[in-house]
Amino acid sequence: MRDIQVLREALENIVKEKNWEWPEKAVIELPKDTKHGDLATNIAMTLAKICKKAPRAVAEDICAELQKNPLIEKVEIAGPGFINVTFKQSFWHEQVLLMESMKEKFGSLTYGNHRRVNVEYVSANPTGPLHIGHGRGAAVGDSIARILRFAGYDVSTEYYINDAGLQMRILGLSTWLRMQDLCHMPTTYPESYYKGEYIIDIAKEMLEKDPKLPTYPDAEDRCYEYAMNKILNGIKQDLNDFRVEHQVWFSEASLVNNGTVEKTLNNLKERGYVYEQDNALWFKSTLFGDDKDRVLRKSDGFLTYFASDIAYHADKFNRGFEELVDVWGADHHGYVPRVAAAIETLGRNPKEDFSVILIQLVNLLRGGEPVAMSTRAGEFITLREVLDEVGVDAARFMFLSRKSDQPLDFDLDLVKQRNLENPVYYVQYAHARIKTLLRRGEENGHTLDDKTGLDVLAALTDSADIGLIRSALHFEEAVLDAAKAKAVHIISFYLMDLAGKFHSYYANTPVLSGDEKTIKARLALLRVVATVLSNGLNLLGVHAPETM
Hints:
Layout: H1 2-17, E1 28-29, E2 39-41, H2 43-51, H3 55-66, E3 72-78, E4 82-87, H4 89-102, E5 116-120, H5 132-150, E6 154-161, H6 166-182, H7 197-209, H8 219-241, E7 248-251, H9 252-257, H10 260-270, E8 274-277, E9 280-283, E10 294-297, H11 305-318, E11 323-329, H12 336-345, H13 350-353, E12 354-359, E13 362-366, E14 369-370, H14 383-390, H15 392-399, E15 408-411, H16 412-416, H17 423-443, H18 454-457, H19 463-473, H20 475-485, H21 489-508, H22 516-539
Helix pairs in contact: 2-3, 4-19, 6-7, 6-8, 7-8, 10-11, 14-15, 17-21, 17-22, 19-21, 19-22, 20-21, 21-22
């Protein structure tokens, strides 16, 4: 990124001095072949019309000025007017010093300018344990928060507890019925009750504490309260063990009980966005392109999830957040424009102040074959089962190894393999391998100072050395792109690429042989690469091991 920034600033100065306008279609990028230099730009071709000159003539003017830049070694014109730029090796050596000095802060940005962002994720109904799909959403949401903080945003993380709707009443009823069944009382199960074995465990636990409980007039309410708290505590423990942070656990019921929902709906009604019909309350979502208006309060008096969601998003803005990021399952795709419309009625710009990250399904495999349903949960594979089998690092990395809106094949056998075919191992081993090299170097008398001098780094002259510096330096660009797109996979893709560059470098470049200066220079470079790998893994919530 810094190489691109340096060239961009140099080109902007040239354009300004010549009274040209910066062309929108000007691009600075890595050349397809590194033999053509460090960076390439099409600026001369995009300026040709403005300058009323042939592209190559414009390129010649620009190259003449770029050649005066003390950081640039060589400038060449290619084809119809592309400009290839090669930096001096001293420029790259200085970047090593920069990365070395910043250490764990390298890659951090001020891009977010302390903009207050609320990231809400997982938010599963506390009606059962988290399943593997929730795990992917948890990893994505937590890592998005880490990336945005690293990019300069002021981030708060939140879990929205759906504790006020029909599903919670069904949870209480299901637990109560199971309790009656265990006491050999006549029991009829409705079709919609929860069938998981965890419900039986909760019912047994309650009976052990109070055998007479099924006979109490408020038994169903007690079952609801106990079961919800039991499940919610389990969810909190699973997320904590998964290294997932939620600073705020926000209750949906609190919005109803303190009158926030009613106040929000009345406000919308006063401004003409809500109306009553057929004893129900409706939101005019057709005003925003929806195919039909949506119910907020049903004719039986019960609020819909949509009503609470409008109040919840209004509450988040009222708490001072400037931007809301929601992480939802892909099945909520059709719900996005509806909530965006509601946010617009709150006086916010949903295109700038509201983002939804959709999480696609996870297909759990073992040796390439689909895994059978969990016997414990009855209907799904729990996150806890996956963590117990493969560990936190493997689970998090695999969840984040693909775009979140694409289905993910998660092979349990693959992520437990200790070889370079396993993407988790591939990246972690790169870090551990460098740490081993640094230890061996020190054992052989090649001790590095805390701060490397440019005189030592001057020994980095091989194209492989420069290429590895460039790859490490572009971590900043990956962080910026990930923050802008709110896309965690950009970091995992970058780490896979950097690890690959290192493994190739290690295989082809003698690190611990040669003259003393070259050995120390390469060890200093690898120390920086290890820091970048560690910083990137930290954004994914994955450990960077010292040994493997």
